[in-house]
Amino acid sequence: MKRLFTYLLLLTCCTNTGNAQNTKKVLLSAGANIGYVGTYDLAVFWGTGIGVSMQAEYPVTEKMHVLVFAGHDHYLGYSLLNGDKPPAIKMTAVRTGAKYYVYRQFYLAAQAGLGIAGGGGEIAALSTFGIKGSSFSYTPQAGYTFIIHQKKRIDVSARYEMFHYRKNFQTAGCRIAWVF
Question: H or E element: which one contains 124?
Answer without folding.
Answer: helix 123-127
